[in-house]
Amino acid sequence: MADVIPAQAPGHSNGASGLTDQETVALIELMFFAYRDFVSDPDEILAQFGFGRAHHRVLHFVGRDPGMTVQQLLDILRITKQSLGRVLKELIDKGYVYQKEGESDRRQRLLHLTAAGDALRQRLMGPQMERIRRAAALSGGGAAQACRRTLYNMVSPANRAAVRDWIERASVLGDEAGKRG
C-alpha cells in the first residue's frame, strides 16, 4: 500500500521539518479526518444521553483525576465557567458526577464520578482506545512513541510542561485506581 503522505511531495520546503507545504496541508487534513472519526463513536453514545463533547471531556478528566476542583477542570478545558456550570449541573442532576466539600477549604467543590459516570466514561473511551491501538499496530513499531512526541510538540510551548505533568500524574492515578478496582 502506498503511503498516505508521499515521501517527497513537490512544493516549497518550510524550515527544519523538511516538510513541503503540500505535505503539511495533507497532515492538517489527516488530522481533521482522524479527529472526526476519533470522536464519532463517542458522539453516537453521547447522543443517546442528550450529552455533547463537553460532557465527554468532563467525564474523562474527572475520571482520570477524582477530586479535582472546578478551577482545575476550567484550566484544562478552557471553556467559560458558565458553560462548565451548565454541563456539570446536567451530569450531577443525571447522577454521573457528584461534588464533595474540600477538607481544608469547605468552599471547594471536589469533583468525582459516580459508578454510572465511570461506566459511561469507560464506554466512551472503549472505541477510542481500540482505534488508537489499531492505528498503532497498523503503523508498525515505534509509531505510538513518534505519534506521542508529535502530539506533545503540537501543544503550545507555554503549556507543554503542564500537559506533561498532567499526563504523568493522571497515569499514576490511573495505575493506582486499577490496583484498587
SSE arrangement:
Blueprint: H1 21-49, H2 53-64, E1 68-69, H3 70-77, H4 81-93, E2 97-101, E3 109-113, H5 115-139, H6 143-154, H7 157-180
Antiparallel strand pairs: 1-3, 2-3
Helix pairs in contact: 1-5, 2-5
CATH fold-level topology of the largest domain: Arc Repressor Mutant, subunit A
The order of strands across the largest sheet is 1-3-2
Task: Give the total of beta strands.
Answer: 3
Query: How many helices in DSSP terms?
Result: 7
Instruction: Tell me which CATH architecture of the largest domain applies here.
Output: Orthogonal Bundle
Number of domains: 2
The fourth-level CATH homologous superfamily of the largest domain is Winged helix-like DNA-binding domain superfamily/Winged helix DNA-binding domain
Report on this structure.
The longest helix is centred in the first third of the chain and has 29 residues. The chain is built from seven helices and three strands, in the order H-H-E-H-H-E-E-H-H-H. It folds into two domains: 120 residues, Arc Repressor Mutant, subunit A, CATH 1.10.10; 33 residues. With 181 residues, it is mainly alpha-helical. A three-stranded antiparallel β-sheet has the order 1-3-2.
